[in-house]
Fold this protein.
Amino acid sequence: MASVRERWGIHSDEYLLLSINRIAEEKNLIAIIKQLPSVLTHIPNVKLMLAGDGPQLEELKEITAELGLEDKIIFPGFVDHDHVNEFYQAADVYVNLSTSETQGLTFIEAITNHLPVIAMKTPYLASLEETAPFGHLLDEVADFPQAVVKVHQEKDIYDKRLDELIYEVSADAFYEDLYHIYEFMIEEKTENKRSFLSRSMHLSTTFDELYKPLKWPKKYLSALNIRRKGDE
């Protein structure tokens, strides 16, 4: 069976940006397309693959044609989950400029396939970056072209960094974190005789001491609606 690159005419020396999404306005895929010419001035052999289906697909194809980028942007359509890893493994970097993503599955899929990530900065991705840098997180969409250039220049260093993150995003790590959270919740409720999940709960100043040994990634704290003293 032909590889993803062979099927879509992507040469081995071409630098492939991949985004797998529902093709819809909230994914901000237009921003990636419109900034691709700037990327091409620095990396002429770049190609962009926007995989997926959705209501904005035809509009994105029209914009691609208007910008004269038909030979640079590929729309493979819907990707069956059984084949999604083949697309990650064919790419050089995963890109996502959506401002609505929180803990997107595609980020985890990209990392587990040893793919650097360029995305808008979120609390979840920032917490992963503290474990090991795995690409480039953006404060502004306009920073995208330079981020691609930087990741392209540093591509050889990411394999080791991504290895450090594989466990962090694994199911085993999630269940371990969940166990520690429940364990601490039970202990707090027993000792303080009050609901741990109260939205108005304030943790004591010993929180920082508890945080480290329990190995809680910061990505879970916002979901628990926890506020520390002095956070108002």
User: Anything to note?
Assistant: The two ends are 58 Å apart (CA to CA).
